[in-house]
Records
---
Amino acid sequence: MIRGLARLRLAAPRLRPAALAPALTRSIVYERDGIKAHLNQLLDLATSNMTGGCEKPLRKTKTVCTVGPKTSMPGPLNELVQNGMNIMRLNFSHGKHEDAARCIRTLRDITDRVAIAIDTKGPEIRTGLTVDDVDIQLETGDEVVLTTNDAFKEQCSSDQIYVDYMDLPSTVHVGSMIFMDDGLLRLEVMDILDDGVRCVARNSAALGSRKGVNLPGAIVTLPAVSKKDAGDLRFAAAQDVDMIFASFVRKAEHVHEIRDVLVKAGNPYIKIISKIENLEGVQNYEEILDASDGIMVARGDLGIEIPFEKVFVAQKYMIRCANLVGKPVICATQMLESMIKNPRPTRAEVSDVANAVLDGADCVMLSGETTKGAWPNEAVKTMTTIATEAEASMDSKARQEWALAAVPNETANIEAIAAAAVKLAGDQGTDVIIAVSETGDTVSYAAKYRPVAPVIAATQSKRVARYANLLRGVYPILIEKGFLNVDQVIADAIEEAKRLGLTKTGGRVVVLHDNNIHDWDESPTIMRIVVVE
């Protein structure tokens, strides 16, 4: 993997030696030695599952479901919840605010435990409208002008195609490739014009109206927050959603601009999950990671913007870095794409989901499978089954030790205690870690160190409980009667752990809580072991 990362330098910065290199080197050893050690375990698991003699563990990896016309009504939405949806995604590249508001109300009527994410349209480049809305047919070798002249905005033809990016002539150069409609049409730039570029088609394709345009390797000058995005962010703030999936984030300042809009709209608590979808985003990944609350590896546009054979390296790099700093990371795009039409996934799709889990993704995402697919519930169940199986095949102890090996020399007290709790739980073989949290910080720090033991997040905040749906291996429990006293909160959390089958009478749990749960700012965090009664 180190060699792979080195070859990606055209699309990614060097890793920080002090923070990342030792942990990465250690992880290589674990991965190498783990292959042989796991072979018999994998065979045992396969045999057990075929004979039905093995009870599968609780799933750690969370599932994001995109909701669309087929799944936004109460019945279908409730089925997604029951089958394992942890986060509902609304794609604002399509649809209206009133439809989104209705879907949000519907989910909240069903449950207040599932998180809601709004995916912004983001800064993107699109073609104009074709004449009479009839597809343009281009053949290999045909020449066509891509123009920024508004006169062709609704008059696109096989001779002239309007593109809504005024800086196109200064962004590309002769020899640049331009992809349209998710790469279905490939154009090579032959000449730079005053208000556009002359291109030659490198393959035959039909092109419809308002199709996406990608400029692989180019540094574009689009604004971070478009007028539409600003309106969508204000809507998200008013609806009090849990997170924003911010599209086409290219640098840290873009994250700050999005956060400013949310703050000015009166809701600074919404988490920002930055979608990495182009070369510039990969190049600036570490600064984006620092500025964001989480990351989405959005492999659709990324697979067009960088060489497709490097996408898997970028995926592993981004997931590993996010794991090291303890921020949640989502792996997305075409994970079970064939299930839009078919009741079973392809073998390649199964491997793709499993590898995302093995890479360390906190969440895996479904898109068209649950918006327009014929088998939305089967897709969610399939995702759950694959993730659970992949988790069972992992050397969780090695992953935990890898994470603990990267504890910073200087760290906040709460993180140091959370790391110590994870180590204690691993050394003592305790069943569960219970983190009593008002803000979610304690839970996040515990999850960061990838404990073998599951984490119960006990909180009186619905927002924190829903945020826990982003974190791998974390199961929220909402203390609806409030934090009356520490012992009662711990007792409620233990009962939930017993209900989930994570512990039983006589078992032991590690508990993290503030000494005074009514004064979070001043009270020190305490760690202790509790025997389950």
---
Amino acid sequence: MHWYPPRYQALGGTSSMQRKRTPPKLCTMQHTRTTTRTVVIWKQVIRSFTLVLIFRTNCHPTHPTTTMTMPQQHPHQHPHQQQKNRKRISIPRTGNLPDIHWRAISMSHLRAHPNFQPLPPPSHISSLPTKEHVRNFRQDSWQWDYLHTGRCTTSQCAAALGFLEPRAARFLGIPSSLRRGGSGAWERLRQVVDDDVDVDLKGLEGVLCEGRTGCDTPSVLDDNNNNGNHGEKRGDTTVRRWRPTSKESERIWIPAHRLHNGLRTKPFPFTAKYIPNLTNDELYTRKLYLQRTHGTPSPMKTRMQWGNAQEATSVLTALNYFCDVDRRTTIHEVGMCGAGFDDGEDEVLQGVKIGASPDAIICHGNGTVEVLEVKNHCPFVWNRISPHYGNVKKSSNKKKKNKGKKKGKNKKKEVEDDEDDEQQKGGGHDGGPKHYLIRDFQLERRIPTAYIPQLMMEMLCVGDAVDLDNDNDDAHNSASRTPICTSAVMVRQTATKGAILLRLQRDEEWIQEMKYYLGRFQSEFVNTGKVPADNFFYDSDPNSRYHKFLQRTIELSESVEQVAFIDHSGVQRMVLERSRRTKGSSPLHHKVPLFLDRVNEGE
């Protein structure tokens, strides 16, 4: 009986079990053909293996064991091509210097996009016809910061509703990193503006439009030409058609329809081509800055910085998708909405001043209006083998264990001393474990419950009109007419796994409950000066009204509509300049690394 290896049975060989089932004559014929074929195959295998051994021995005669693990180059390749292949290494997934501006597109450049309607510089606004016109101030201006005083914005809404209390947060599934008490919202609502200058419209106009005008710093696009709004004079209150100069816009963006020069040209995947490129010098400048200012690693701080730096890139992702579906769609920049509720006409709020600042407003070609909110999931997390990771864990545990004890302060001081010693010894730098690790965030088809109040508040505060500079005076009051915004779109974007677009429909019953509990927070805690206790709404709920409110929040979180999933290659980001890809550049010149540790360094 003859036995054939299983890998060659598929080439025509037969096993002993198969020969028992075949007639004797056929078995003899198949045996002859199979034997001949097997001999030929083995000869080819031996010949190929011999050639490989001869080639490797000639290339590295003194290190035969090392040559088995090194990548081999074709003998006919050019020496420069062989050197290039040896430098192809994978992007490092650990590091100490995370690049929070990784391939990010700035907000000043997004304002020059042909499908983006920006807000004017604050110095161009000289009057406020209504309080709701404060939404024309940009979110990076001091006027926008000033409007937060004493106002319940989206950053404090969930806390004022009691969603971040221990028991309610556990019921809603909110992670422990986001849980905090309602004292922050209580302190915000107790803030009082100096001299009550915003009680009437004239006082608010005098502060925001005329006072402290020298504190505002216009963007780069605004410094070149003060009359870049196509004919509008400086100080004109009509801001709906303000745009940067066409010359400045053409230096940043090229519309996609101008890139099709022939039938053979592939369609450009985005609405416009981004002209500025990232240079290796810029990466090196970022590295030097981080090395000078880098202190104790803080993933939470890095996460917040990443979200702010990548916001315009995520807005551009939504712009590219919706403008590809309908070319008439435009994305509008917006500031603080909801000041029209300050007049106190809504008795349910009991005097609470509310406000919301969506990342943008989507105006579809069919007249539909949606608020846009983007969430950028930071890829940098703790590396568990980092020496700082253990110290931070010890300090947090000891702080909880020794809370209120004098001995706990000494323990905390010892932990800080240990961290300083590790920093001086070089722990966590190039000679030791890295502090950060890249996490591939997996996107889910749901909106976390902690963000439901934010989206509902934004839909409420947008009101009934996007264009406030029309001739209809009734549209100036956000609380006077039928709301124009009936849904919200959230973009959840990652650095390595693309983005997902989700839509949440407006729920009037939930909004009424939100206003009811915000009013209770104002009357029971803010007006009385009493600091809210733990689980303040969850424990005092005899009729289970609050529990039903929480349950409805979970249902809204899971009932969202998936608009689209954008692949990683479908996210438009800044690319590396090709002229910098020279022989002496970094081996990471083909890709932009998420860490800056190895920028301008060899292998």
